[in-house]
């Protein structure tokens, strides 16, 4: 005996499109973006004699007007191949690849980075081309 299929459900007229979905880094939703994401890839080697923690909150970027931008810690974590990179220490002599993500105004071009091995270090300036 064949069971007849139930009639298709009616959902009414289509709704108008809602707000755009949140921005994503590697498929993961991040906090609301204010401008545009600028991703900076780097290789970091610990040349010291003790372990150091790579912390996105101690890294900064600058534009031509010398405006200082903080890295987006959550987006940086998701952008890196190793999601735990920003939580683990780097032992002496070891090298890791990292991606820092900065939320900057649209049309902004970064000119340099200020990188630190701790919040209290003097840091180093890296010019961007």
Automatic annotation (TrEMBL):
Residues 1-30 are annotated as: Disordered. Pfam families: DUF4352. Residues 33-123 form the DUF4352 domain. InterPro entries: DUF4352, Immunoprotect_excell_Ig-like. Residues 1-24 have a biased composition (Pro residues). Gene3D superfamilies: 2.60.40.1240. It comes from Phytohabitans maris. This is DUF4352 domain-containing protein. Keywords: Signal. It comes from the Bacteria.
